[in-house]
Hints:
Elements: E1 3-8, H1 16-24, E2 29-32, E3 41-45, E4 48-52, E5 65-68, E6 73-74, H2 76-88, E7 97-99, E8 103-104, H3 107-120, H4 132-141, H5 153-175, H6 182-196, E9 200-201, H7 203-213, E10 217-220, H8 245-251, E11 260-266, E12 269-271, H9 284-292, E13 305-307, E14 309-310, H10 311-321, E15 325-329, E16 339-348, E17 351-353, H11 360-364, E18 367-374, H12 391-404, E19 408-412, E20 420-422
Parallel strand pairs: 1-10, 1-11, 2-5, 2-10, 5-7, 6-8, 7-9, 11-15, 14-16, 15-19
Antiparallel strand pairs: 3-4, 12-13, 16-17, 16-18, 19-20
Helix pairs in contact: 3-4, 3-5, 5-6
The chain binds guanosine-5'-diphosphate (GDP), 6-O-phosphoryl inosine monophosphate (IMO) and magnesium ion.
Guanosine-5'-diphosphate binds next to helix 1 and strand 3.
Amino acid sequence: MPATVIVGLQWGDEGKGKTTDFLAEQVDCVVRYQGGDNAGHTVVLGDEVFKLHLVPSGILYPHIVPVIANGVVVNPATLLRELDGLAERGIDVSRLRVSRNAHVILPYHIALDSAMEARLASAAVGTTHRGIGPAYADRAWRTGIRMEDLLDTNVLRAKLQRVLPDRNVILSAAYGAETFELEALVELGAGWGDRLRERIVDTTDLVQQALARGDSLLFEGAQGTLLDLDHGSYPYVTSSNPIAGGACTGGGIGPLQVDEVIGVAKAYATRVGAGPFPTELEDAIGEGIATRGREVGTTTGRPRRVGWFDALPTRFAVEINSASSIMLNKLDILSGLDEVRVCVGYDIDGERVERWPASADALARAIPVYETHPGWRESVHDARSLGDLPEEARRYVTRLEELLGVPIHLVSVGPERSQTIVRSVRPYPAARHRR
Ligand code: GDP
Ligand code: IMO
Ligand code: MG
């Protein structure tokens, strides 16, 4: 019963889209288990670039059932726009299914996200302003609207009637922001329900039946371990659990049904939004990496902060996710540097620290301790085995592997599917379409 979780080991944008697309060929089903349209997953197919926010990255294969599971917060407007855009480009989107239990992001969540961020001013989290935090808060408050509620206008109206007056009071009295009208929201939600009706199903049952049949499934995480609500540097985190455990609560599988966890890391580090980032480079080297790596947010267009690879949080991420192997992306972006650095410890208040400190406070004072490795000049875009890499690049990969303690099975040397070094792939039973 192969169920593989794909999880970001850093602060998001590690290349989960490329990794999922690369592995999806072999499976039957790709399940998104948390986050919302704050995510931006890029898949490159020849000249075509697909930027996916809610639709699982397996959509480009005609044999795959893409599933948006219960742990995702869905903005139906984004979902419909994304489906229409893909259909216009000739992609068959008919198989996509959405959980009845997934929570809906409504316009008042987006308004609250923006109002709260503005109020925080210099202490702002730097959210994507997609309403993610307020939608998850409503879920926890048990005042959320779920996808199934969109299917019955009377239910939708009754639930909105209970929550909307409170949200409007907060918006107007606390923030002086615009308020929302009940009937307009009912009409909007019912319209979404009409268009998505056929796709709204019990995805936990769908997942369990697929596992029982012996299908292979990929669970695609959004964001990354260091943005995890519980395990990231709170409060500079997102409002869900991107870690592999989130695939169980958000995807509808039990812990013992997961038999592989592939951690996705970049050969350097990036972060969008505020929060501690000890290895951040605010110099010409950082600018060079950002330019070559096109490190601009897929969802918001914000420039991503760039830094050296940091072994401490990434090793922590390997542990907390029980990652069995790693896909290391964007190795090609480091070509052309005289030297490359890897952070192997911190100096915090004069003390040497070798494990990731949980406290954002301690992290803000962490001074990185680096190992310096010789760089390489050559392009590595055409490498298809570790032996094709310049000696220095090969050493860099094997050193990261040593520091992280799990094998790096896949190395990506360009955005395309084919630009991948496969050192070892676990054999999957043939996907249903090939049986
Ligand atoms: P995700 O959110 O984890 O899916 O990552 P994003 O799609 O937001 O950002 C990763 C970016 O790097 C995308 O533009 C990818 O096309 C690109 N990318 C992925 N792997 C590689 C690689 O090995 N080399 C290069 N040059 N680009 C890559
Ligand atoms: P993918 O899936 C990188 C960051 C935001 C902000 C924090 C909270 O493409 O890797 P939120 O809108 O979620 O409340 O913002 O999380 N963030 C991401 N950073 N990649 C992402 O997704 C992100 N999704 C959210 O920048 O710092
Ligand atoms: Mg992204």
